[in-house]
Specification:
single chain; mainly alpha; 10 helices; 69% helix; 0% strand; elongated
Length: 185
């Protein structure tokens, strides 16, 4: 793209808000948990205490809205609990083993984002990527041999957007299997 259209770092724009990226989906799911928590002032106050103790699910469930917050949290852990910060190191505690590791991220999401904002930002990023794709295709079509270039680039963009999440997906499956295996030992 730099050679043909003079644009640098186009892949950054094209890889925004891609579907089927487990890391993106995980971030959106965590924001959903934050949106659930923010509905209940007692739960919000509880997770703001420093630091929540290890049996915080039991304590949170006693609060007004606590059961709903626990359910949202546990749904997240059911799907993404095998992950953690620095997840390549299998000796680190996973979120399902130490869920309070997620509290700072939840607090940050609650503080920085409005309810539902994560979804609108994702959709906006997706729109921007699709608009950039069309801009590139139109620019290429105006060049000599542009139809052929545009067809080739459209296929490349499709591959990028459809498979950029594979690395995270494969990493997730591998980590999940490794953790399950080591727990059996």
């Amino acid at each position: 793209m730099e050679k043909w259209l003079g644009e640098k770092n186009v892949a950054d724009s094209l890889s925004k808000s891609v579907d089927n990226n487990v890391t993106t989906e995980m971030g959106l799911a965590l924001c959903d948990v934050a949106d659930t928590i923010r509905k209940y002032s007692e739960v919000l106050e509880y997770i703001s205490k420093e630091p929540p103790n290890e049996n915080f699910f039991e304590e949170m469930a006693k609060l007004s809205g606590g059961k709903e917050a626990c359910e949202a949290f546990k749904r997240f852990l059911d799907k993404y609990g095998m992950r953690c910060p620095g997840e390549i190191d299998i000796t680190k505690a996973r979120w399902e083993e130490k869920p309070i590791q997620l509290i700072p991220m939840l607090q940050s999401n609650i503080r920085v984002l409005e309810p539902g904002e994560h979804e609108s930002k994702f959709l906006k990023g997706n729109e921007e990527a699709l608009e950039k794709e069309e801009e590139i295709i139109c620019g290429l079509k105006r060049m000599p041999g542009g139809r052929k270039k545009a067809k080739k680039i459209r296929k490349g963009i499709s591959l990028l957007r459809n498979f950029i999440g594979c690395r995270e997906y494969i990493l997730n499956i591998t980590l999940f299997a490794a953790i399950r295996f080591t727990r059996r030992l």
